[in-house]
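In this supplementary section we document a worked example of the pipeline. Step one takes a protein sequence of length 489 as its only input; no multiple sequence alignment statistics are reported here. Step two produces a three-dimensional model, which step three serialises into structure tokens for compact storage. The input and output of this example are shown verbatim.
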Amino acid sequence: MMKTAIVIGAGIGGLSTALRLHKQGFKVKVFEKNDYAGGKLHAIHQEGYRFDLGPSLFTMPHLVEELFNLFPNSSVSFSYKTKQTACHYFWEDGTVFKASTDNQKFVKTAASTFSENKNTIATYLHNSRKKYQLTKSLFLEKSLHKVATYLSMDTLKALVNAPFLGISNTLDEENQVFENPKLTQLFNRYATYNGSSPYQTPGIMSMIPHLELGLGTYYPNGGMHRISQSLFELAQEVGIEFRFRESVTQINHHKKKVTAVTTEIDTYKTDLVVSNMDIYPTYKKLIRDVIAPEKTLEQERSSSALIFYWGIDSSFPDLELHNILFSEDYAAEFEHIFQHKTLSEDPTVYINITSKESPEDAPKGHENWFVMINAPGDYGQDWEQLVAQSKERIVAKIKKCLHVDITDYIKTEYILTPQGIESNTSSYRGALYGAASNNKFAAFLRHPNFNNKIKNLYHVGGSVHPGGGIPLCLLSAQITSDLILKTAL
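The serialised model returned by step three reads:
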């Protein structure tokens, strides 16, 4: 008889795990509370504009291609293009910098723009690459919670190079190698890629720039939503069953082993369960009868986001797909987010415009602006007031950096707050990446991809190892499915 598996949640982690389990021979059924697949990788259409709601940066496309390679006869299409510019940076004093994905060009342009020594920049990028290569096997590709992970040459190499990795420094301290504070700020920004503060997260995070500047930045044809939708279409094509608008209310177990899941409609027997739901509500709602790992669940949450989706009645040739308008006081911005659980009066503004790559995403001569500022999770703040204040501050920042009052160009608007993110995706407090990485032990405190209380219960997605964001969720699915192959049933 064919083994059965139930996946709770059709986010990117759930979709990719379902595909891998199907390839392993499981009959897979996916339950999703929403009426769509993709989790945070969703999209909306509004008054002629299309907006990607979730993640906007695409790196490491080979992780998506690996899933399609599991099913070489698929008719589902997925393609992407390589970006020459990773991001376009702006400061209020008129400084502008286009970050090239060509390292030599990046070094040359950055040295000129910031009056920085070329060798300092080149060495930093080289070290970023080296840190990534030394740690990817240990931190990104294997379970941190299995002894076998530490009995390898890769782990030995990482341990030997521990002082070089910057584990004892903060990212900001690591980035003080630059004389120009703007360049330090630019590289400090990479802490936000896992929802952390550069003034708290360890210096090992200086490997993150390599993911973008070394391995490349890409754009999926059809937008970011195409990533989740192509995987959903592939899953449907190979015979994976989806049950939308059917929330799982309980994971059933007997003698410390999974037996079934109960939904609002019925109870379904199964051999194993993979929860793509955030680890916090998994324990608090689905396995309430199991003693929860409170130390893990009480970890500081990552940052969230406040996002304005604006249909803009104009076009701006100087803007790229990815644009950053920096705060004048970066330290104060992160202090507001993590210490005070509120928003800075001078936020860094990120603007993503997919109509630069997909003109059909906006009416002719118009642009679709995804305008985001980093935010704390939902701790009961007055979001109505914070939204109104933030819109004024964002408009002011755009005016200072781009010399245009955007107010009259906004023809349609949709707003997503941390409350909305939690409601849509069950991410505890609306955190984008589960737990923050604001201390050097954070990676080890993340929940493992297996459950050590209930056999044949596994976990996947941004709230467990190795972390949040598209590449890490895809790697999480790989780790989880490998563990299932070795340990399940």
